[in-house]
C-alpha cells in the first residue's frame, strides 16, 4: 500500500515531490516494505516507475527485481479472467483517487471500463488498452516509453534483454531505430555470450550423464551414447545440415521413453513445448499420413494442419519422440526419411518447416528378445564378477556398464532384423546412433524396488500419516517378480500386488492406527508358491512388533461360479 502511495505522489506532485518520495521510499524499505509487491491487477512498482520516469533507481537499490513479468494481459481479457464487476474488495490506498472518479459514474461502467480506469490512473494512459502486456518486464515498459536513461539504468541493474513477453517479443522488438536499438543489440550480445559461458560451465560441473543417471536406473551404455552425441551437438562438433537421429531398441518398460523425456528436460526449460511425442501406433494406415503433416488443399481438416508440423512450427529445435516407430505405415516412414535427411518437412499447405536443430528419437521393440537373451548370456558369463560387485550399498552397484553388445552381434543379428522390418537401407542409414537397452541386472532391480517402495512410503506418510519401513530381504523377494518382457513395469505391478494390496485391505479393515509405524518383512519359507511371502507388522514405541491379521476381502470358493 505504501509503495503505491509513494508512486502516486511522485506521479502527481511532479519533480519536487519526486525527490521527497525517493527519500520516503528508502525509509519504507528500512521498515521492511517489499519492493516487488504486486498491484492487484498484476504489475510491480518497478514497471510503473520504468514507464513513468519515477523512482526507478530507488526501487532498484532497494532490491526490486528488474526481470519480473507482468501478470496483466489487456483490459478486456483481464476483466473477464478476474470477473471484476464492482469496486468492492481490499485495495491499496492509491485507489482512492480512482474511487472518487469512478463513484460519480459507477452506473455507466462496464467491468472492462473499471479495469481501463485503474490501468490508466495507476499505471499509464499512454498504452493501448487492447494490446497484450502479459509477461512484459520493466525493460519492455521502459522501451515502450522510449526512455533511454531508464533502459540503461535497468540494463546496468541486471535486466535481461533476452526475456520475452507472452507474445514471444523481446524489448528490442518495441525499440525505435537509433540509439535505443543499438543499445539493446549490444546488451543482447553481452547476455548471449554470458549465457553461453554459464551453460558451458554448468555442463562441465554437472555433465549430462550425471543428470540422466538421477532419473534412469541402469542403462549405462545407452546413457553414455546419447550424452556423447548431444555433447557433440552442444559444442559445435556436428553436421548442422542434418538433425540428430536416434533409434532406441529394447523391450517394453526398460527406460527408452523416460530417457527421451529426460533429454528434452535437459535441452528445454519448457518441456511442454520442447518435447513432442508421437504415438506411431496411430499412423498404421495409409490415409493417416494426413494426420502427420496435415491434409492437402480441398480435404477436410486442411486448415488445422498436421499433428507433427503444427508442433514443430512452434518449436523447431524440439526433442521429438516417435514411439513404437515399427508400427507406422511405410508412407509415414517415407516422410520421416525427408525429415531425417534434409532437416525439413513440407506440410499439407505446402509450407516448409526447417527443423535441423531438432533431436529425433525413435523407439522400437523390434529385436528386443534377441537383445535381451544376448545380454543375459553375457551376464551369465560374467556372473562371478557381478557377485563380487553386489554390496549392501545400492548406490555403489552399477554392473550393467560391464555388459557390451558386440559389433558382430549388431551386424549379424540385429541389422538383418531391422532391414527386414523397415525394408529400406536408406532409412537405417539416416540414423546417427542405434542405442541398445539391456535387461536389468539384480542390483538394478533392487534399486527399482527401493524406488517404488519409497514412492508408496511417501504416499502413506502424506495421506495417512503412516510410516512404512522394510528389511533388505523384502527387496530381494519383490525383485524376483521381474518379467523380462515388461521391464520396470513388472516391478511396479509386483509392489502393488504384494504390498499395496495388503496396505489397502488393512486400512479398510481399520487395522492401521493413525500415526503408526509399519514394517514389511519376509515370512518363513512356504511350500505353496502362491502364498504371500510378505507380512505387515505394527512397530510399537518399545520396538515390539505385532503382525497384522488381514482378512481376505472375499472367499475364493464363494466366487468360483464366476469363472
From TrEMBL:
- What sections of the protein cross the membrane? 94-118
Q: What positions does the domain Clp ATPase C-terminal occupy?
A: 440-536
Return one Gene Ontology term, BP aspect: cellular response to heat
**PROSITE patterns hit by this protein:** ANK_REP_REGION (PS50297), ANK_REPEAT (PS50088)
Its Gene Ontology molecular function terms?
ATP binding; ATP hydrolysis activity
Q: Which UniProt keywords apply?
A: ANK repeat, ATP-binding, Membrane, Nucleotide-binding, Transmembrane, Transmembrane helix
Instruction: Tell me yes or no: is Oxidoreductase among this UniProt entry's keywords.
Output: no
Quick one: a GO cellular component term? mitochondrion
Q: Where are the ANK repeats?
A: 134-166
Region (Disordered) residue spans: 544-563
Domain AAA+ ATPase, by residue range, is 242-387
**Gene3D superfamilies the UniProt entry points to:** 1.10.8.60, Ankyrin repeat-containing domain, P-loop containing nucleotide triphosphate hydrolases
Its protein name is: ClpB family mitochondrial disaggregase
**Which species is this UniProt entry from?**
Scleropages formosus (Asian bonytongue)
Amino acid at each position: 500500500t505504501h509503495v503505491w502511495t509513494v508512486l502516486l505522489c511522485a506521479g502527481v506532485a511532479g519533480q519536487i515531490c519526486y525527490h521527497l518520495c525517493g527519500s520516503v521510499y528508502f525509509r519504507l524499505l528500512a521498515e521492511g516494505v517489499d519492493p516487488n509487491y504486486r498491484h492487484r491487477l498484476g504489475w510491480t512498482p518497478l514497471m510503473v516507475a520504468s514507464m513513468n520516469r519515477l523512482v526507478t533507481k530507488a526501487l532498484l537499490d532497494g532490491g526490486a527485481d528488474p526481470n519480473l513479468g507482468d501478470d496483466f494481459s489487456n483490459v478486456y481479457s483481464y476483466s473477464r479472467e478476474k470477473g471484476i464487476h464492482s469496486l468492492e474488495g481490499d485495495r491499496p490506498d492509491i485507489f482512492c483517487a480512482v474511487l472518487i472518479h469512478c463513484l460519480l459514474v459507477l452506473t455507466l461502467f462496464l467491468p472492462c471500463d473499471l479495469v481501463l480506469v485503474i490501468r490508466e490512473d495507476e499505471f499509464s494512459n499512454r498504452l493501448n488498452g487492447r494490446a497484450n502486456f502479459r509477461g512484459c518486464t520493466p525493460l519492455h515498459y521502459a522501451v515502450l516509453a522510449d526512455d533511454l536513461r531508464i533502459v540503461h539504468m535497468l540494463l546496468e541493474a541486471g535486466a535481461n534483454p533476452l526475456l520475452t513477453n507472452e507474445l514471444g517479443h523481446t524489448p528490442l522488438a518495441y525499440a525505435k531505430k537509433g540509439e535505443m536499438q543499438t543499445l539493446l543489440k549490444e546488451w543482447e550480445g553481452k547476455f548471449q555470450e554470458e549465457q553461453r559461458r554459464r551453460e558451458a560451465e554448468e555442463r562441465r560441473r554437472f555433465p549430462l550423464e550425471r543428470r540422466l543417471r538421477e532419473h534412469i536406473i541402469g542403462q549405462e551404455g545407452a546413457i553414455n551414447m546419447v550424452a556423447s552425441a548431444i555433447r557433440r551437438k552442444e559444442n559445435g562438433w556436428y553436421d548442422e545440415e542434418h538433425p540428430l537421429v536416434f533409434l532406441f531398441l529394447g523391450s517394453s518398460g526398460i527406460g527408452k521413453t523416460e530417457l527421451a523425456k529426460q533429454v528434452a528436460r535437459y535441452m528445454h526449460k519448457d518441456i511442454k513445448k520442447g518435447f513432442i511425442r508421437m504415438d506411431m501406433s496411430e499412423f498404421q494406415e495409409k490415409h493417416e499420413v494426413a494426420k502427420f503433416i496435415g491434409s492437402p488443399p480441398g480435404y477436410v481438416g486442411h486448415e488445422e494442419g498436421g499433428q507433427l508440423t503444427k508442433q514443430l512450427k512452434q518449436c523447431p529445435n524440439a526433442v521429438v519422440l516417435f514411439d513404437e516407430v515399427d508400427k507406422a505405415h511405410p508412407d509415414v516412414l517415407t516422410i520421416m526419411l525427408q525429415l531425417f535427411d534434409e532437416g525439413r518437412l513440407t506440410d499439407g499447405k505446402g509450407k516448409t518447416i526447417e527443423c535441423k536443430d531438432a533431436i529425433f528419437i525413435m523407439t522400437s521393440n523390434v529385436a528386443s528378445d534377441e537383445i535381451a537373451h544376448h545380454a543375459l548370456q553375457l551376464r551369465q558369463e560374467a556372473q562371478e564378477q557381478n557377485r563380487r560387485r553386489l554390496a549392501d550399498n545400492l548406490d555403489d552397484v552399477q554392473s550393467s556398464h560391464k555388459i557390451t553388445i558386440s559389433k558382430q552381434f549388431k551386424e549379424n543379428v540385429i541389422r538383418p532384423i531391422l532391414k527386414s522390418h523397415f525394408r529400406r537401407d536408406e532409412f537405417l542409414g539416416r540414423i546417427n546412433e542405434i542405442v541398445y537397452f539391456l535387461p536389468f541386472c539384480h542390483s538394478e532391480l533392487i534399486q527399482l524396488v527401493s524406488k517404488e517402495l519409497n514412492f508408496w512410503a511417501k504416499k502413506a506418510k502424506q495421506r495417512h500419516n503412516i510410516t512404512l519401513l522394510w528389511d533388505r530381504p523384502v527387496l530381494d523377494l519383490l525383485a524376483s517378480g521381474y518379467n523380462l518382457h515388461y521391464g520396470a513395469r513388472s516391478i511396479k505391478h509386483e509392489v502393488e500386488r504384494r504390498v499395496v494390496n495388503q496396505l489397502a485391505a488393512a486400512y479398510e479393515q481399520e487395522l492401521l492406527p493413525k500415526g503408526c509405524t509399519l514394517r514389511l518383512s519376509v515370512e518363513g519359507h512356504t511350500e505353496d508358491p502362491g502364498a504371500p511371502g510378505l507380512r505387515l507388522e505394527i512397530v510399537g514405541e518399545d520396538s515390539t512388533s505385532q503382525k497384522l491379521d488381514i482378512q481376505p476381502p472375499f472367499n475364493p470358493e464363494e466366487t468360483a461360479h464366476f469363472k
